[in-house]
Amino acid sequence: TLSWPSGTWENGPRRSAFLPYKPATVLTNLQRGNIQAKTHHLDVTQFTWHMKAGRGDLRLEDVMTVADINERDEHGMTGLMWSSAYGQTNTVQCLLDRGSNPMVYANGRQTALHMAAYGGHHEIIRLLLAYGADVNGVDEQGNTPLMYAVCEDHAHAVYELLLNDADPCIRNNNNIEAFKLAVQRNCNQAKIVLETHMMHVLSS
């Protein structure tokens, strides 16, 4: 069992990616009652299947009736990639249960695991790995999911990946490994996790 210094990353908040479809609520003039409210009806039919996955708005009917659950959009992304990128855990679980493939590649050879790692969604990382995602898969630049998590200083995601045999010694096409990325980008929380992991490996 790994032992972490008290009061460091493991007690901190679990950072997550900004969800573009659900912006934070602010106190506007409308909410204060200074402006008369106008009712706008959102036509959900304007959203594509992939957009619904990213929003967490897919219904079971949508999943059951889609022609190809692994269909890629114009960005090369599947519904599983969208929901993984934006932290939609329930949608990810639903898609995986119904055969969505975590090993489909986007245009840059990223997988759903890369997307989840970049967003810091460690619960989704755990789910994807349980369904066969490659923890050490590389994109077209040679970057692993661990590198994606490190670059955004997502300590809990880094820990989850290392716990599932992510290799911190893999180098990308620029001959840089995860620890060097953490140092270069001042990702101090990720650096702590990597250092502790390496000390544990060396002492075992």
What is the CA-based Rg, rounded? 19 Å
Share in helix: 40-55%
Q: What is the H/E string? A: HHHHHHHHHHH
CATH homologous superfamily classification of the largest domain: Ankyrin repeat-containing domain
Please report the total strand number as a whole number: 0
Provide the residue-averaged pLDDT. Answer: 82
* CATH classification, class level of the largest domain: Mainly Alpha
| CATH third-level topology of the largest domain | Serine Threonine Protein Phosphatase 5, Tetratricopeptide repeat
Terminal Cα span: 11 Å
Q: What fraction of residues sit in β-strands?
A: under 5%
Number of domains: 2
Content-based structural category:
mainly alpha
Number of helical runs? 11
> Describe the biggest sheet?
none
Instruction: Give the second-level CATH assignment, the architecture of the largest domain.
Output: Alpha Horseshoe
- Spans where pLDDT lies below 50 across 5 or more residues: 1-44
The dominant shape is elongated
Keywords: ANK repeat, Repeat
Organism: Rhodnius prolixus
InterPro entries: Ankyrin_rpt (IPR002110), Ankyrin_rpt-contain_sf (IPR036770)
Pfam families: Ank_2
Structure in words:
- With 204 residues, the chain is mainly alpha-helical.
- It folds into 2 domains: 41-134, Serine Threonine Protein Phosphatase 5, Tetratricopeptide repeat (Alpha Horseshoe), CATH 1.25.40; 135-203, Serine Threonine Protein Phosphatase 5, Tetratricopeptide repeat (Alpha Horseshoe), CATH 1.25.40.
- 44% of the residues lie in helices and 0% in strands.
- The chain has helices at 29-32, 49-55, 60-65, 79-85, 89-97, 112-119, 122-130, 145-151, 155-163, 178-184, 188-203.
- Helix 2 (49-55) runs parallel beside helix 4, helix 7 (122-130) runs parallel beside helix 9 and helix 8 packs antiparallel against helix 9.
- The longest helix has 16 residues, at 188-203.
- The N and C termini lie close together (11 Å).
- The model is unreliable at 1-44 (pLDDT under 50).
- Pfam families: Ank_2 (PF12796).
- Keywords: ANK repeat, Repeat.
- It comes from Rhodnius prolixus.
